[in-house]
Amino acid sequence: MKRLAIVVSVLSAILFTSNSFAQSNNKWKMQLGYNVSAPLGSFKNDYISNTSFRGGVGEISYTVNPKVSVGLASGYQDYYQKYGRAVYHTQGNEVVSAVISNSMRVVPVLLKGTFSPMGNSSSFIKPYLSAGAGINLVDYKQYLGEFPTSDASGVFAAQAGLGVLVPFSKNNAETGFKLGGTYNYAAYKKNGLSNLNSVGLNAGVVFNLK
Amino acid sequence: MNTKLNLLSAFAGLALIFTGCTKEPLNNLTREESRIYITNHDSATNFSSFKTFSISDSVTYVNNGRSSRDRTVADQGFINATIAQMKAAGYVQVGKQTNPDVGINISRITNTSTGVIVYDNYYNGYGGYYDPYYWGSGFGGYNYFMPYGYATYSIREGALSIDLLDLKDASANNRIKIVWTGLIRGSGIFSSDANSQVKTLFDQSPYLKTN
User: Fold this and answer.
1) What is the full DSSP assignment across A83-127?
2) Rounded distance, CA B200 to CA B39, Å?
3) Which structural domain range is residue A43 located in?
4) DSSP for chain B?
5) Which end of chain A is flanked by fewer CB atoms within 10 Å, N or C?
6) Are B49 and B94 in contact (CB under 8 A)?
7) DSSP label at A51?
8) What distance in Å separates residue B68's CA from the closest CA in chain A?
9) Distances (CA, A) of B62 to A104, B11, B51, B109, B126
């Protein structure tokens, strides 16, 4: 978390000393944010139930009109849970006593559209809806004691989100602080899992790219 | 310039966040938690038909596929712990010259040259590591036989194996069958308490008893 605070401070310093938040007709924007994610369904019940506080989101978007933007979104989320020592029947008469550590690292790459019904109004808070689809790059690792089994793959993913944008100023209503939530679907059907669904809560900033 | 600066700083920030916000599972394990205890046994064996056992007074040190006899303080700890668990299960310890029903071999297995060896290789070489004559001249010429196998395990740093041999039925079968195996893998095996480790193997093998 210390490193996260340093990064946010450095980024903020760079961004605020540039003209990123000045009024601009620039249509290209970037969003950076911190993300918390909670597993759902099979992901939660069969693998990791802990909420992950280790994640980030990013998006580069193009403003089609004041109400609609499209973009490429990515991010990173690290899920982890350790289960106390227990006995597992593996195959035949084989029995293993082990502490199991489950790890899942997910990098989504999504094409995303965002609809802001209030457009570039000078409102203090502007809600938005978003939807995206693409792939999740998934790094699965399960440890029996210190011995890992790993599997890397890419699976179809889709996302629906909503939230609010709090503009930095009335003069530049499309940049500001952003707070949102997402529902994430991922078609992951292996390693004993039938999906990799989650809900996320993110907070970040949106700024112009020039 | 500002666009490039913003992009660079943004991606640098993301990279730092991503690398800094990862939980490395291996860093969150104690030595005890790093260890796994694996047992397997022959389905056809009725362990309550055995009443007596004998255990080798030293361990077989299998290093890079070559074996020698050894008995360090840690080895003796595992021998003593195995005797205690067998007695607790109701078996009576006897000398190897008094026709024990069960013989027990303990092996300390390490590999330093190639990084990884497959655990099955240990059993493939079992006859070379253990001389059947050790259990008496009547066992000479018998091969060792293991009716079960292991799937995916490999040994990097070290392992300890406890093998129970059916000596009672060896002459009827013309071979010495390995009827139970307890394998310990992970960190700090030989520098940690032997009793608790061996007890874990026996606790997950409730069929190992005389009645």
Assistant:
1) EEEEEEE-STT-EEEEEEEEEEEEEEEEEEEEE-TTTT---S-EE
2) 10
3) 2-208
4) -HHHHHHHHHHHHHHHHHHHT---GGGG--HHHH-EEEEEE-TT--GGG--EEEE-SSEEEEETTEEEEE--HHHHHHHHHHHHHHHHTT-EE--GGG--SEEEEEEEEE--SSS-EEHHHHHHTHHHHS-GGGG-GGGTTPEEE-S---SS-EESS-EEEEEEEE-TTHHHHTEEEEEEEEEEESSSTTTS-HHHHHHHHHHT-TT-S--
5) N
6) no
7) P
8) 27
9) 36, 51, 29, 5, 10
C-alpha span between A114 and A111 (Å, rounded): 10
Looking up residue A9, the CATH number of its domain turns out to be 2.40.160.20
B70-79's contacts with Cβ under 8 Å and 24+ in sequence apart are B70/B108, B72/B190, B74/B190, B74/B191, B74/B194, B75/B106, B75/B108, B77/B193, B77/B194, B77/B195, B78/B106, B78/B160, B78/B162, B78/B194, B78/B197, B78/B198, B79/B55, B79/B106
pLDDT tens digits for range B161-190: 999 999 999 888 888 999 999 999 888 898
End-to-end Cα distance, chain A: 29
B186 Cβ under 8 Å from any chain A Cβ = yes
Chain B contact present for A5, CB below 8 A: no
Domains, in order of start, for chain B: 35-203 (3.30.160.670)
Rounded Cα distance, A83 and B117, in Å: 28
What is d(CA B64, CA A203) in angstroms, rounded to the nearest whole number? Answer: 54
Question: How many domains does chain A divide into?
Answer: 1
Other residues' Cβ atoms within 10 Å of the Cβ of residue B114: 9
Judge: A101–B17 Cβ closer than 8 Å, yes or no: no
In the block, which residue shows the tokens 């100023």?
A169
pLDDT of residue B8: 59
Which region holds residue B205: left if phi is over 0, alpha if psi is between -120 and 50, else beta? beta
| Tens digit of each residue's pLDDT (9 = 90 or more) over A105-123 | 999 999 999 999 988 787 8
ipTM: 0.83
Nearest CA-CA distance, residue B95 and chain A, Å = 30
- Are the beta carbons of A101 and B29 separated by less than 8 Å? yes
The verdict on a CB contact (< 8 Å) between A145 and B33 is: yes
pTM score, whole prediction: 0.83
